[in-house]
């Protein structure tokens, strides 16, 4: 069996084990959950203006691009731990989601994307006929 090794990943794991923290935090931390007939994704984008966020859906792939620009002033910074630049994240949407009715809201540094579950994926009742009577059961 052929195995691929990545020495940088090994260093990240070692740093996490020794320091108890991630060596490289995610640029766009995400929470995803199912809520009342929708799939909801929340992405943390603090310090990013709403006009520098792009959201695209192509062939069931949702792509989020965001840019955090550095301050334009010439202030000498003593400490600057923020990440600047372009961030991107892709989510692969299943066939059970209705990407045509996707909606997004950006508030307090959190981008919330709500994708309704497709009608074909929702539970429905199926009628069963037997002789003269008809019964309904939940499917």
UniProtKB/TrEMBL annotation:
* Domain spans labelled SHSP: 21-131
User: Which InterPro entries does the record associate with it?
Assistant: A-crystallin/Hsp20_dom (IPR002068), HSP20-like_chaperone (IPR008978), Small_HSP (IPR031107)
Taxonomic lineage from the root: Bacteria, Bacillati, Actinomycetota, Actinomycetes, Propionibacteriales
Q: What is this protein called?
A: Hsp20/alpha crystallin family protein
The record's listing under Pfam families reads: HSP20
SUPFAM superfamilies hit by this protein: HSP20-like chaperones
Where are the coiled-coil regions? none
Give the protein family. Answer: Belongs to the small heat shock protein (HSP20) family.
User: Per its UniProt record, what Gene3D superfamilies does this chain match?
Assistant: 2.60.40.790
């Amino acid at each position: 069996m052929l195995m691929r090794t990545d020495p940088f990943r090994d260093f990240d794991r070692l740093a996490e084990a020794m320091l108890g923290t991630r060596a490289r935090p995610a640029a766009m931390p995400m929470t995803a959950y199912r809520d009342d007939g929708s799939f909801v994704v929340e992405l943390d984008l603090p310090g990013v203006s709403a006009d520098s966020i792009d959201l695209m859906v192509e062939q069931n792939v949702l792509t989020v691009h965001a840019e955090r620009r550095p301050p334009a002033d010439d202030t000498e910074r003593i400490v600057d731990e923020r990440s600047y630049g372009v961030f991107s994240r892709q989510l692969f949407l299943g066939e059970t989601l209705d990407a045509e009715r996707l909606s997004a809201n950006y508030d307090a540094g959190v981008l919330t994307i709500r994708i309704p579950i497709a009608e074909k994926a929702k539970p429905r009742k199926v009628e069963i006929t037997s002789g003269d009577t008809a019964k309904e059961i939940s499917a």
